[in-house]
Automatic annotation (TrEMBL):
Start and end residues of each Fibronectin type-III domain: 330-429, 430-525, 526-622
Gene Ontology molecular function terms on file: cytokine receptor activity
Similarity annotation: Belongs to the type I cytokine receptor family. Type 2 subfamily.
Protein name, per record: CSF3R factor
Endpoints of the signal sequence: 1-27
Lineage: Eukaryota, Metazoa, Chordata, Craniata, Vertebrata
Listed Gene3D superfamilies: Immunoglobulins
UniProt gene name: Csf3r
Keyword terms: Disulfide bond, Glycoprotein, Immunoglobulin domain, Membrane, Receptor, Repeat, Signal, Transmembrane, Transmembrane helix
Length: 767
């Protein structure tokens, strides 16, 4: 048994390799899988069954057979039952099959693993879609009919597409089969019936059905695509210079056909081609009028059979040919506008005259220049010319009182009739109001209120701010409808640029005073924000200022400035400032606190933040600092005055600074006898105080004739004697210093009068 069990896996693996594919089913010798249909509509139900013959599967003869299903690599559940003849059958139903292609496996469990023993491949999709827009063209080189169409939606199934054709009395045949998934093929000449009606259609077939295109009923010759004709010559008709004549030839191989041709032409500035239809004939010429004078045109031509059906194909357009029509003198009047002012002493008037170049239809060719005169041109003589220029403006001076000038344009064929320009006085009634709104990124609509007086026309002026060369520094236009209240400006308008607009009403005999406005065709956030500067600061307030943004950096009308400030505690505050202001005072600040401030400039389209400014509030206000300094100054002044008063007042001075006698100048210093024995100075030992004992008494005798307390002048004093000590005897052998008289101390200080010493006898104290 062990030997048999060991050999069974190899036998089973070998048997799994011997799968047989029968239709949509894969079978093993002991298992078979059957499905209801191997191709089903996408999203429909799929049924399948797997039958296991136990006796044919080695290793499964005994024991219970467990059947399971796998859709590709995903496990799906089926129901198992006992089949006839001892077989095991598992049925499976998939309610919605949403795969375009998948493999359904039948598995059995053997030795703890699932083994695949049968398989069925299932595909799902849709019926073929109907082919659309079938068209065919006959190639005259080989007379093959090439047809093309648009394939419908993808069916996800193998689909066979063929082009079928049938004659009026013939059976339908397969004309051609497209290759490589293309949607076109060519029917050979042998299957075609020329000059007879044929039906042609496309058929698409797959396992779920068949779809056909609309049947096309044509004569193959009607859809023959001819080679384009050739334009031989183009020239103006001499007496009608707005008309031209074209000569053309047909392509080779089409000389015997009656053709229907079309001509198209355009000038370089025209937005589209102008088309001329109904040109019939085998070859020849054609005429066309209504061309502009002195204008270059490009011409092209194409043809097809005149008897062809509306489905017939046109030939390609012929190679283009250019032709410039003849010129003639310019026509029409020029739009003119002027400005005049006195030219200083001499009685002359300085005039700036501007005019619009004539349109192409009125220029009748290339304008060579313009001429300004003071009177119209008369037969036989030319008036004096004050300006001859190639530009559309001219500055000149005329005598005071000149009321009219005349301007005309000329080209190689002649000169236009002069346009009269009346130099009206600007004293008319102004308009009541003017406003401008965007008409697009490069246009502006201007609206105004009509005045009460009748107006003949209006003149609009606009100028870019700031003015730049080449960017419509002084553009203008005339509105000839006096009843109009709106006008569209398109010349030189660019987004994010400011334009100053002025409107002049023209009355009979005068020009009204202008009204002004400013506008943007489109706005955006400013390019930059102003830079903040600190003007002053205190402990609770700070005044900021900034320079207004230049107009070229505003990109729109500034609607507001917003100031933001925050301290170190992230307390944020803000304030909105009118755009007309350039300073702001922040109030309610904390003393001695650091703040960060920035400004935002805003337009209707957005805002831009500026750089941050850091500032620190003070501890005291300016008034408090001034009061403190004033107080200190007052205290200093009071102290100074007090000191001066004290210095002047002797009584107070003696109380505060008493007079101390100078011992050197005392009478005691002078009463010391000349022979006083020097005794050594000894410091007594520290002991308890006791009664003092007098050991010696010295009697000092005064000088004869000297009163006590009085000093008599005498000869210059000798150098002061050294101080002599006076001692008293405390006990036997213990001399103690009593006093020392300095001979040079406190000089210059006045001494108070002292009584002189009395005469005493020398007494010796008793023991």
């Amino acid at each position: 048994m062990a030997r048999r069990g060991a050999g069974t896996p190899s036998l089973l693996q070998l048997s799994l390799l011997l799968l047989l594919h029968l239709g949509g089913e894969w079978t093993l010798g002991c298992a078979s899988v059957a499905v209801g249909s191997p191709i089903v509509p996408l999203g429909s139900a799929v049924t399948a069954s797997c039958t296991i013959q136990r006796e044919l599967c080695r290793g499964l003869e005994q024991g219970k057979v467990r059947i399971s299903w796998m859709l590709d690599n995903r496990l799906v559940a089926g129901s198992q039952r006992q089949g006839p003849g001892g077989t095991e059958v598992s049925d499976l139903t998939l309610p919605r099959f949403n795969h375009t292609q998948a493999r359904l496996w039948c598995c059995v469990e053997w030795n703890g693993t699932k083994q695949r023993v049968g398989m069925a491949e299932i595909r799902a999709g849709y019926p073929p879609a109907k082919p659309l827009n079938l068209s065919c063209v006959l190639n005259l080189a080989d007379y093959g009919l090439t047809c093309q169409w648009e394939q419908g939606a993808e069916s996800h199934l193998p689909t066979s597409v063929v082009l079928k054709c049938a004659g009026s009395r013939a059976q339908a045949v397969t004309g051609c089969t497209p290759r490589g998934g293309h949607s076109q093929c060519t029917v050979p000449r042998r299957l075609l019936q020329l000059y007879r009606q044929m039906e042609i259609w496309v058929s698409a077939t797959n396992a779920l059905g068949t779809a056909e295109s609309e049947h096309l009923s044509i004569d193959p010759m009607d859809v023959a695509k001819l080679d384009p004709p050739t334009l031989q010559s183009i020239q103006s008709i001499p007496f009608q210079t707005d008309c031209i004549a074209l000569a053309w030839d047909v392509a080779r191989g089409t000389e015997h056909m009656e053709l229907q041709c079309e001509l198209r032409y355009r000038a370089p500035e025209d937005p589209a081609w102008a088309l001329v239809t109904g040109i019939l004939g085998r070859a020849g010429s054609a005429r066309r009028c209504g061309f502009l004078f002195g204008t270059q045109y490009r011409f092209q031509m194409r043809c097809r059979r005149s008897s062809a059906s509306p489905l017939a194909s046109w030939s390609e357009w012929s190679p283009g040919r250019n032709y410039t029509t003849h010129e003639k003198a310019p026509t029409g009047k020029l739009d003119a506008w002027w400005g005049a002012q006195p030219a200083g002493p001499g009685g002359r008037l300085s005039v700036q005259l501007r005019w619009k170049a004539p349109r192409q239809r009125e220029a009748n060719g290339r304008v060579l220049g313009y001429r300004v005169t003071l009177s119209p041109r008369r037969r036989g003589r030319d008036p004096p010319t004050v300006c001859n220029t190639t530009h559309t403006q001219c500055n000149f001076s005329v005598p005071a009182g000149t009321g009219r000038v005349y301007v005309s344009a000329y080209n190689a064929a002649g000169e236009s009739a002069p346009t009269e320009v009346i130099l009206l006085e600007r004293k008319g009634q102004p308009l009541a109001g003017l406003r401008a709104v965007p008409g697009g990124e490069r246009s502006l609509w201007v609206h105004w209120e009509a005045p009460l007086a009748p107006v003949t026309s209006y003149v609009l002026e606009w100028q870019r701010v700031p003015a730049e060369p080449g960017h419509c520094s002084a553009c203008w236009q005339v509105e000839r409808d006096g009843a109009a209240t709106t006008a569209l400006i398109q010349d030189g308008i660019e987004p994010f640029q400011r334009y100053n607009i002025s409107l002049y009403p023209l009355y009979e005999g005068s020009v009204g005073a202008p009204v002004h406005t400013a506008a943007y065709s489109r706005q955006k956030a400013p390019s930059h924000a102003p830079k903040l500067h600190l003007r002053r600061i205190s402990k609770s307030e700070a005044e900021l200022c900034w320079e207004p943004l230049p107009v070229e950096e505003q990109n729109g009308f500034i609607t507001s400035y917003t100031i933001f400030w925050a301290n170190s505690l992230a307390d944020v505050a803000s304030a909105t400032v009118s755009p007309s202001l350039s300073s702001f005072v922040m109030r309610g600040l904390q003393p001695s606190t650091l703040y960060k401030v920035h400004i935002r400039a805003s337009t209707a389209a957005g805002g831009t933040n500026g750089t941050s400014l850091t500032l620190v509030t003070t501890v005291l206000d300016d008034t408090e600092v001034q009061f403190l300094f004033l107080t200190l100054g007052l205290v200093f002044v009071l102290l100074t005055v007090l000191l001066i008063c004290l210095q002047k007042n002797e009584r107070v001075k003696k109380q505060l600074w008493p007079s101390v006698p100078d011992p050197a100048n005392s009478s005691l210093g002078k009463w010391v006898p000349a022979a006083v024995p020097q005794e050594p100075l000894q410091v007594p030992a520290a002991r308890e105080p006791g009664p003092a004992a007098i050991s010696t008494v010295t009697v000092l005798e005064g000088e004869p004739g000297k009163q006590p307390g009085k000093e008599h002048p005498g000869p210059a004093a000798a150098p002061p004697a050294l101080p002599r000590p006076y001692v008293r005897q405390e006990g036997p052998g213990e001399p103690v210093q009593y006093a020392r008289v300095g001979g040079a101390g406190y000089r210059g200080q006045r001494l108070l009068p002292e009584p002189g010493p009395r005469l005493y006898e020398n007494l010796r104290g008793r023991g």
